[in-house]
Amino acid sequence: MGILLKEVSFGYGDKRILDKVSLAVREKEHIGILGCSGGGKSTLLKLLSGLYTVKEGYCEVEGETKPEGIRKQVAMVMQTPGVFPLSIRENITCGHPISEEKVWEAVQAAQLEEWVRSLPEGLDSLVEERGSNLSGGQAQRIAIARAIAKDAPVVLLDEPTSALDGETADALLRAMEPLTKGKTVIHVTHREETIQGYDRILVLREGKLFEKESL
Ligand SMILES: Nc1ncnc2c1ncn2[C@@H]1O[C@H](COP(=O)(O)OP(=O)(O)O)[C@@H](O)[C@H]1O
Ligand SMILES: [Mg+2]
Fold it and tell me: Are 158 and 42 contacting, i.e. CB atoms less than 8 angstroms apart?
C-alpha cells in the first residue's frame, strides 16, 4: 500500500503545474516537501487527496485509483482550516458515525480538551461562520481533531502552521504528533525544522520533484 504516482502531469488551463511527477511512498513513510510558493505543492496534495482527478499519468493511494476511493483513505489538514458554522462535534465528525469516546479522544489528542470542557455547551458549542469566534490555533486544532477522528492511513499536511505565530505553530506541531504517528505522511512546509526526522525530504521545483540531497 502507500502511495504511487507515475508520470503525473497537471495544469490549470494552458498552464502546466506538475510535469510528469513520479513518487513512491511506502506505508508509514514520512515525506516532507519543500518548494517555492506557487510551485504546485497544494495542487499535488489535492490530487493525492482525491479532490482533483488525475487525467495524465497514474495515481494510486492505498490501492485506490478513483477520487471517491482515495478520499476515504486520506485525512488532510490545510493551510487555512475549513471550519463550518456547526457544532464543534459536527466539525469533527463531519456527519460520520463516530462514537462520543472517539470524538473525545481526538479532542484530547489535538490538545483541545481543556478548552472544550470550559465551554458551557462543550462539544455542542457552535462555531461561527469562518471560525470567527475561534483563534487561528483553535480552528486549526479542530481540523486536526477531525483528521485524527477520521483515522485514515494517509495523512496529508499542507503548511498547517503557516498562518499561525511561532509559539502557536510550535504547540500545534506537538498536537499533530498523534495524527501522524504510524501513518503514511506527506507534509508540505516552508519551515524545514517542522519535518526534521522525516524519512525523506523532497523539493518541488519547476513542476518536478527532487530528492533534497541531490540538489
Ligand atoms: N484553481 C486554480 N485555478 C487556476 N490556477 C490555480 C488554481 N490553483 C492554483 N493555481 C495556480 O497554480 C500554481 C500552483 O499553485 P499551488 O499548487 O497552490 O502552489 P503552492 O502550494 O506550491 O504555493 C500557482 O501559479 C497558482 O496560481
Ligand atoms: Mg500551497
Answer: yes
Residue where the block lists cell 455547551: 121
pLDDT digits (tens, 9 = 90+) for 116-156: 999 999 999 999 998 889 999 999 999 999 999 999 999 99
Confidence of residue 214 (pLDDT cuts 50, 70, 90): low
Residue type, 122: G
* C-alpha R_g of the chain: 17
Site to probe by mutation for ligand 1, drawn from 14, 16, 17 as the one with most ligand atoms within 8 Å of Cβ, is 17
Binding pocket residue ranges, ligand 1, CB within 6 Å: 12, 17, 35, 37-43
pLDDT at 166: 87
Q: Compute CA distances 165 → 17, 73, 131, 195, whole Å.
A: 30, 31, 17, 18
From first CA to last CA, the distance across the chain in angstroms is 28
The C-alpha cell at 132 is 470567527
pTM: 0.94
Q: What are the structural domains, with CATH classification, of the chain?
A: 3-214 (3.40.50.300)
Query: Ligand 1 atom 17: the closest Cα is on which residue?
Result: 40
Q: Are 141 and 110 in contact (CB under 8 A)?
A: yes
